[in-house]
Amino acid sequence: MKKTAKLTALLLALVMALSLAACSGTNLDSADPNESKATPENSNEPAGDVKYVVGICQLAPHVALDAATEGFIDALNEKLPGQVDIQNKNAAGDSPTCATIINGFVSDGVDLIMANATAPLQAAASATNSIPVLGTSITEYGVALGIENFSGTVGANVSGTSDLAPLDQQAQMIQEWYPDAKTVGLIYCSAEPNSQYQVDNVQKKLEELGYACKQYPFSDTNDMASVVQDAADNSDVLYVPTDNTAANNTGIINNICQGVVPVFAGEEGICGGCGIATLSISYYDIGYKTGEMAAQILTGEADIASMPIEYAPQFVKKYNPVTCEALGITPPDGYEAIAAG
Q: What are the C-alpha distances in Å from 69 to residues 90, 110, 114?
């Protein structure tokens, strides 16, 4: 009996030892460093799942800037589908609010800032030298950022697209419509350096063409009506550049000038609100191009420091049928009607 008991105990011990060895083997197998882990091919996670945060600061809500923002967002969503968290904010025409919005983006550590118009660009360039900043709807970057002898590339962390249409052709457009006019009044907001740049250059060309020119700057909406009225009373023709304050307040200009004096505009949105004709670009297109640039920067395909400013690829002559009818004038050949908004 003693031998039988000892044999039984030995067998039990052997069974337990084998069981422990089996369990130990399973644990070693699962920890094998050579075993294949989850890969993009067999994982439930989608390939290219990198997420980016992009902050948009738009100066004001009006048709041109809205179109640029729309184009930017469309391009980002097309180039990086599902990979971009877009924070779209509007300063409602208030420059100090631009700085508040931009500083919030910087504090949050966004991956890229899109500045739509001059005031947001200036705020962004002042707020950060490390986060990439792309501008759009900017007429002249050298003027906006105080860069002398601007070469076309900002460098550092800033680049973008320009809404500048050929200023000499805008001046020639006035001559095409009103060759017998004598005086041209140039209306713009003195707080916008790019507006000053435009009227200075258009004035030079108009004076070469034989027109007498006078600048009529207004500081903000408080003195805008009185300045426009003065210009309308003393000019045969008026010119309004691509100016954000004017774009937000075309009703003021139109109420004074409709049927009284023709207004030529630097862009289609202003022309549609109060003008007679413009040399137009597509703000959607320059916004879209800015979005393409953003995608290249975010993915590391391009270095923003070496990216030159991009310009609209084409320009279209357009006229406003409503103001033409009010002035009793037929547009010259080659102009497209601005669609009623």
A: 10, 17, 9
In order, the DSSP letters of 112-146 are EEEEESHHHHHHHHHH-SSS-EEEEEES-HHHHHT
Nearest alpha carbon to residue 154 among 291, 289, 304, 312: 304
The DSSP annotation for 64-131 comes to HHHHHHHHHHHHHHHHSTT-EEEEEEE-TT-HHHHHHHHHHHHHHT-SEEEEESHHHHHHHHHH-SSS
Rounded to an integer, the average pLDDT of 168-195 is 96
pLDDT (tens digit per residue) in 188-212: 999 999 999 999 999 999 999 999 9
pTM of the model: 0.79
Compute the half-sphere exposure of residue 241: CA atoms within 13 Å on the CB side of its CA. 31
Q: List phi, psi (to 5°) of 133.
A: -125, 120
265 contact partners, CB below 8 Å, separation of at least 6: 239, 240, 271, 274, 275, 277, 278
pLDDT tier at 27, thresholds 50, 70, 90: very low
User: Which CA distances in Å does 58 have to 3, 67, 90, 198, 244?
Assistant: 94, 11, 5, 21, 11
